DNA sequence: GCGGATAACGAAAACGGTTGTCAAAATCCG
DNA sequence: CGGATTTTGACAACCGTTTTCGTTATCCGC
């Protein structure tokens, strides 16, 4: 119910890419909000616990979050330049991951799959 | 040629799973080595820069390293319990990642794919 | 509305993994 | 054997994140 959690969710939703807690904090403050960094972290934690947002780790270990449209299992195609993300599906990848796991005697199999690239906009801006 | 870098490489090689810098440091110290934590970090950085070891991030952002046998592109099936890892390949996943990226107008496409599970040993120990 | 319990909030401190600093020790070279 | 160069490791700084704790807002029975 918290207003602040709603605020954070909306800030995330307005972005098309993955954003860090500190990014969102900076955005909200620059819009005049008096929200605290702790609250942003708490909201993101709650949202990711409830599965409402996706979280992944950048190469340098920072957590970044995204409010995805679909709530079923999916992966992301993420722009290395601007963070913009596209939700993607790959049924054969799901099957492959499960089968390669069971083939080696593993159980409770999960997987992480992320595809990275440079989006058309960023490529144009750089070219 | 540094002896210390060799020491770290060997400590990694003796393990079948992904290990953190602090893990390796603790191991080496307990074996009587007088190596410093900074040096372990430096060695791992150098080894991963040169592509001799693979690195990935745990859920909580910690970097873990592994000395893989093959030096060609591959992925890992990692035990959630003990960190033991198996090198796996999935040509169809490689193709899928590239094609889904180009389909959305992205270039310079790369990907991360990791499969997690509980290995037979850990399942037996827990059951 | 009022008053007290309860939950949310935010500033600041603590935390943990990682990196930077710098002087001491080891190695190299002439 | 010097002196230059590189490697090393104790320690401090860093940075993202979590914890702490006193304050503030929200609920709810009256
Ligand atoms: Zn882009
Ligand atoms: Zn999947
Ligand atoms: Zn295991
Ligand atoms: Zn691959």
From TrEMBL, chains A, B:
Entry's family note: Belongs to the Fur family.
Q: What is this protein called?
A: Transcriptional repressor
Q: Which residues form the signal peptide?
A: none
GO BP terms, alphabetized: negative regulation of DNA-templated transcription; regulation of secondary metabolite biosynthetic process
SUPFAM superfamilies linked to this entry? Winged helix' DNA-binding domain
Cofactor binding mode, per the note? Answer: Binds 1 zinc ion per subunit. Binds 1 Mn(2+) or Fe(2+) ion per subunit.
Residues given in the record as Fe cation binding sites: 73, 94, 111
Its subcellular locations are: Cytoplasm
Task: List GO terms (cellular component aspect).
Answer: cytosol
Q: Give the GO molecular function terms.
A: DNA-binding transcription factor activity; transcription cis-regulatory region binding; zinc ion binding
Keywords, in A-Z order: Cytoplasm, DNA-binding, Iron, Metal-binding, Repressor, Transcription, Transcription regulation, Zinc
Query: Do you know which Pfam families this protein is assigned to?
Result: FUR (PF01475)
CDD domains (alphabetical):
Fur_like (cd07153)
- Its main localization is cytoplasm
